[in-house]
């Protein structure tokens, strides 16, 4: 049955972090276009932080079936922008916009898109059968880019070798679609990821050895 709404979509607090993450991700893309790679890296990490906790926020409210399905879709669409398109453009731009960087970045975006679309299908089926929270991921989550890309940016700046980021992009792209299981991080895991992110964030803010 068609739901009568004054405006399409949902706008309660359960999706606010996802919407903020999308906006921050778009801001990062604009920074890349302006050649501000350090700022783009910071935007990528902030988007990752938003994604890390949006599911926790959403779980605090009892949602109907349509709201849950909307949450799955909007989260993956956000992930494609923030952790698919943004990192791909980052590497393409910082590598001098050459043909190799173009194909590597394109392969990365395609892999991220396939993974996210497949995840949506499998997650909707899982929720209909099992319900509850997911305890593992199949393949590397695309949100891993929020940690790996800034780290590779720091490394490539120190080594003055853009091939580092292209290699990292290829490895992540392959890992997105390989069917290996990764246990979903809970509080301890999230604290570890957050601590790593804080260290990277501090390095990026200080701009040590970075092209700014």
From TrEMBL:
Transmembrane segments: 12-33, 70-93, 99-118, 138-156, 162-180, 192-210
Keyword Membrane recorded: yes
Pfam families found in the cross-reference section: CDP-OH_P_transf
Matching Gene3D superfamilies: 1.20.120.1760
tRNA-binding as UniProt keyword: no
InterPro entries: CDP-OH_P_trans (IPR000462), CDP-OH_PTrfase_TM_dom (IPR043130)
Keywords: Membrane, Transmembrane, Transmembrane helix
Protein name: Phosphatidylserine synthase
Organism: Claveliimonas bilis
Lineage per the UniProt record: Bacteria, Bacillati, Bacillota, Clostridia, Lachnospirales
């Amino acid at each position: 049955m068609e739901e009568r709404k004054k405006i399409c979509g949902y706008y309660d607090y359960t999706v606010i972090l996802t919407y903020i993450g999308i906006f921050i991700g778009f801001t990062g893309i604009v920074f890349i276009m302006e050649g501000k790679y350090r700022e783009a890296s910071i935007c990528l990490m902030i988007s990752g932080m938003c994604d890390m906790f949006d599911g926790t926020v959403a779980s605090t409210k009892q949602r109907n079936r349509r709201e849950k399905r909307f949450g799955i879709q909007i989260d993956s669409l956000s992930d494609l922008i923030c952790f698919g398109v943004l990192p791909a453009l980052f590497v393409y731009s910082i590598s001098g916009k050459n043909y190799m960087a173009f194909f590597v970045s394109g392969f990365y975006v395609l892999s991220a898109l396939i993974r996210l679309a497949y995840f949506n299908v499998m997650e909707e089926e899982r929720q209909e059968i099992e319900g509850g929270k997911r305890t593992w991921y199949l393949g590397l989550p695309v949100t891993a880019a929020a940690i790996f890309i800034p780290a590779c940016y720091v490394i490539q700046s120190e080594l003055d070798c853009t091939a580092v980021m292209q290699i990292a992009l290829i490895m992540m792209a392959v890992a997105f679609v390989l069917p290996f299981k990764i246990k979903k991080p809970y509080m301890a895991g999230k604290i570890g990821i957050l601590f790593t992110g804080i260290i990277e964030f501090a390095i990026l803010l200080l701009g040590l050895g970075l092209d700014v």
